[in-house]
Structure formats: structure tokens, C-alpha cells
Design brief:
- The protein is of the alpha+beta class.
- The chain has three domains: 56 residues, SH3 type barrels (Roll); 94 residues, no CATH class; 128 residues, Gcn5-related N-acetyltransferase (GNAT) (Aminopeptidase).
- Helix content is 20%, strand content 36%.
- A hairpin with a 5-residue loop joins strand 13 and strand 14.
């Protein structure tokens, strides 16, 4: 039996077709969402269009790992700029090429410095006092290729930044601020002023079936692309695996499309297999990765 890579790996898989097919074999390229494992099992591959192809493990003839689609550094910078404006905390300051965000300690994203223009590590020293004055640790958001980490620097909370095109589908009710029902369902202690904060954009909050909630923010990148950022998606435990999360997210993106968004992104913790599978089923693909480090560790 051929050894199959682990969950989430992008592969090109060649497999045997039934004997009555016109061709003896075919190929599929995509991410593994279920590696199958044992003989008689099925390996599941999700293509870039969101379709899932099931292949019997016994029919797999060959498999090779395919690198993720190449992304230019400028594309990462543009997306990170739009994402920073979509979750900016309640106070922001520019320090040369860095955007410093402050949000009273609620969430890493709202309380970290991110390099959005050409930047150097030397400038980080100036952030220490600014965060210390607010009683906060100085955290640095480190997206791929926007800043080079010295070897041995400990990093935390690696995120996959996943993207797709926005296509309107279903509609859900979207409000400009979360109400008490939304906040109860969200189950996280994030202040409303953090949730509703956005710079030069628009934010909306959706709720579905009294069991699922989510947030979407529409902001523009320097290249003019209007991005829809999904966040704060949560489904009550008793209502999971019923398709509510997908329907809600599609509704939030439909709302964003009406406000000019043509591209969408979501930030997923790297080891959250369930969330990654959800967004891959909607056509999202990994664009780049990001993580957090302590500013003092960079100096």
C-alpha cells in the first residue's frame, strides 16, 4: 500500500478507475481532508474548487506532494493591511512601517504590531515603551516574508491565512453591532468595542437559527482590492455538524459582496482541522501563514 501524507497536505494523486471506464486511471490535485490510512478505507481529496473526491486507498497508484500555490510578497502585504484594518483594536498608531494596535489586552490581533510597509526589526525597540505604558506585553504579528525571524525565536499561535473569491449565494440577517443574543452565543469575553472596531471599512454581525454567530468586516487593501474578513464564527455545541457554520459564512460573504468585496479571507489556527475543513469546503485555500512573537525576543 502506498503511504499517504498527513491531513492538509496538497497532493497530486493518481488512482485506478473502474474497469468499465474509458480510461484506466486519472489524477486529482487538492488537499487531503481524510488520509484513509488502512486498506479498504477511502482517502478524501478536496480540490481548489471545493469539490471532494473519494478514492479507495486500494486504488491509489501514485501520490506526490505539490507545493502550495506561489504567492508574491506584495500580495501578502496587501492582504495583511486589509486584515489589520478589519481587527484594529480601539487605538492605532503608525510607527514608520508598523501599525501598532491596542485593545486593552483582548485578543492578540487587537494588541500587536504588524509590519505593513517596508520595516526593520530595529524599529521594534520603540514599541516596547508604548505597549508597557498601557500595561500590555509587546507582541509582534509576523506574517510570512514580511519580516525575517532570527533562528531560535519562540513563536506562538501559528495561523493559516486562507483566501477565496467572493460569490453571493444565500442571505442571512446582518446587523451593524452584536446584540445580547449574539454575544451570549459567541461565548467569548471580547468587549463590544473590540468586535465593532474597523478602520475605513464596514463591519456586520450575523446570527443563524439561534445557534450560530459570526462577524465579517469589509476593508480595502492598498492595491484597491476590497476584502471580506470572516472572524468570530461560533456554533453552539448542540447544533454542530448541521451545516450552520457554512450557511452563516456564505450569508456573511453575500452581505460583503453587496458592499464591494471581491475577495475573502479567514485566519485559522493551524491545528484546527475542523475549521480548516469547513473553509476548504467553501473554496478557501492557504495564502500564507502568520504567527506571534514577543518584541523583546527580536531585540
Amino acid at each position: 500500500m502506498i503511504d499517504l501524507p498527513e491531513f492538509g497536505t496538497r497532493v497530486s494523486l493518481r488512482y485506478r478507475l473502474p474497469a468499465d471506464e474509458a480510461r484506466p486511471m486519472t489524477d486529482v490535485v487538492g488537499h487531503i481532508v481524510d488520509p484513509g490510512g488502512d486498506p479498504g478505507r477511502v482517502v478524501r481529496i478536496r480540490t481548489r474548487h471545493g469539490d471532494v473526491v473519494d478514492v479507495a486507498v486500494d486504488d491509489v497508484l501514485a501520490v506526490r506532494v505539490v507545493p502550495e500555490m506561489p504567492v508574491r510578497t506584495g500580495e501578502i502585504r496587501n492582504l495583511e493591511h486589509a486584515a489589520a484594518l478589519a481587527w484594529p483594536g480601539t487605538e492605532q498608531h503608525w510607527l514608520n512601517g508598523w501599525l501598532l494596535r491596542f485593545g486593552g489586552g483582548a485578543t492578540r490581533r487587537a494588541n500587536s504590531a504588524v509590519p505593513l510597509r517596508y520595516s526593520s526589526v530595529a524599529e521594534i525597540a520603540q514599541t516596547l515603551d508604548m505597549y508597557a505604558a498601557r500595561g500590555l506585553p509587546a507582541l509582534v504579528s509576523v506574517p510570512d516574508r514580511l519580516i525575517r525571524l532570527p533562528e531560535g525565536i519562540p513563536a506562538d499561535a501559528e495561523n493559516l491565512v486562507m483566501t477565496t473569491d467572493v460569490t453571493p449565494t444565500v442571505e442571512v440577517r446582518v446587523a451593524p453591532a452584536p446584540d445580547s443574543s449574539w454575544l451570549t452565543l459567541y461565548e467569548r469575553d471580547v468587549p463590544v468595542d473590540i468586535l465593532t472596531a474597523v478602520v475605513d471599512g464596514e463591519v456586520g454581525f450575523g446570527e443563524l437559527a439561534g445557534a450560530a454567530v459570526g462577524r465579517v468586516a469589509v476593508t480595502a487593501a492598498p492595491d484597491g482590492t476590497r476584502w471580506a474578513g470572516l472572524s468570530a464564527v461560533h456554533v453552539s455545541e448542540s447544533a454542530r455538524r448541521q451545516g450552520l457554520a457554512r450557511q452563516l459564512c456564505e450569508g456573511l460573504l453575500t452581505w460583503a459582496f453587496a458592499r464591494g468585496a471581491t475577495r475573502a479571507y479567514v485566519q485559522v489556527v493551524a491545528d484546527n482541522a475542523a475549521a480548516r475543513a469547513l473553509y476548504e469546503s467553501m473554496g478557501f485555500q492557504v495564502h500564507h501563514r502568520s504567527r506571534y512573537v514577543r518584541a523583546e525576543d527580536l531585540l
